[in-house]
Amino acid sequence: MRTRLASLSVWAALFLALECAAAGAQTSKLAGEIDAKGLQKLVASQKGRVVLVNFWATWCVPCREEFPDLQRLQKKLGPRGLQIFGISTDLSKEMPEVEKFIAISRSEFPNYHKTTEGDDQDFIDAVDKAWGGELPFSVLYDRAGRKVKTLSGKHSYADYEKEITAVLK
Hints:
- Helix content is 48%, strand content 19%.
- By secondary structure, the chain is α/β, with parallel strands linked by helices.
- The protein has a 6-stranded mixed sheet with strand order 1-4-3-2-5-6, with helices on both faces.
- The longest helix is centred in the N-terminal third of the chain and has 24 residues, at 2-25.
């Protein structure tokens, strides 16, 4: 009887270990965490492409509403040289919601999470000194990596398409 219980305990421990390993093996839908310097490097790495960086959060209804339009734009204009990056500004404790949102929306472009380290205002100022922190907020960069336009608040597909195609030319 004692051997049988020990054997069951070993199997239970093995099963638990496998379950934990499987849970840990689930990969994040995020491309990683990013700070202001990382964002500058990311944009610089895209020279030759037009880049749109969209700052969003899961709790932001207008952010969620415009997300499908951004995906359509990436799909349509990506072959012409557009690269969109999403930056979630959600708190660390909201990461399960972020992961779920990205998975459900099947994002066509990479999404990062703004690092929780450092001062939020320093990050905001590094992105654009005129940005008040409102969401959604997008920054459009030309093929040389120069900031050419900021778009504050929710915008329509047509608004984004007009601004992006002007820079793609």
